[in-house]
Design goal:
Length: 153
């Protein structure tokens, strides 16, 4: 099993940890020395934070994005510059901006471009371009792409 854990920067741990705890993340580790560092966990996802003057992005693939958005919005507002974007019916993602400026994007799993963009023509164009460059590609993936293109997506 392989696990990837996003490490997000923040100026101070106290800028972001209360925000994530209010969203339901559990603080699992915190250290101040030799370097400020903290780790949090929500369900089976980990986010770690370290002191730096920059920002990062983390993508969360979730099955219930609309329910999660509603739950986060019910929590309310924060005194800092943290915010949660709106979500129109049928959208597959939203963005959470934490007090440090990092953005987390919970989104539904999508396997085909047209499902994300609702644009069959754009998906066909991407598949056509990918197939033109697919000299060393996995034969099963090439076959799947050709079938999708032949079926006009």
């Amino acid at each position: 099993m392989t696990t990837a854990i996003p490490l997000l920067p923040c100026r101070k741990l106290d800028d972001v940890l209360p925000f994530y705890e209010s969203l339901g993340f559990e603080l699992t580790t915190r250290q101040e020395r030799p370097n400020p560092y903290a780790s949090t966990r929500w369900r089976n996802a980990d986010l770690h934070f370290y002191a730096a003057n920059s920002v990062g992005i983390c993508l969360f693939i979730v099955d219930e994005v609309e329910e999660l958005h509603a739950a986060f919005k019910r929590i309310g507002t924060w005194a800092s510059n943290a915010r949660i974007t709106g979500m129109k019916p049928g959208q597959s993602r939203f963005t959470v901006f934490d007090p440090a400026g990092n953005s987390e994007r919970p989104c539904e799993p999508r396997e085909v471009l047209r499902d994300f963009k609702n644009d069959d023509a754009a998906a066909a164009k991407v598949l056509t371009q990918a197939l033109a460059r697919a000299r060393d590609a996995n034969p099963d993936e090439v076959k799947r792409a050709k079938v999708m293109l032949a079926e006009r997506l």
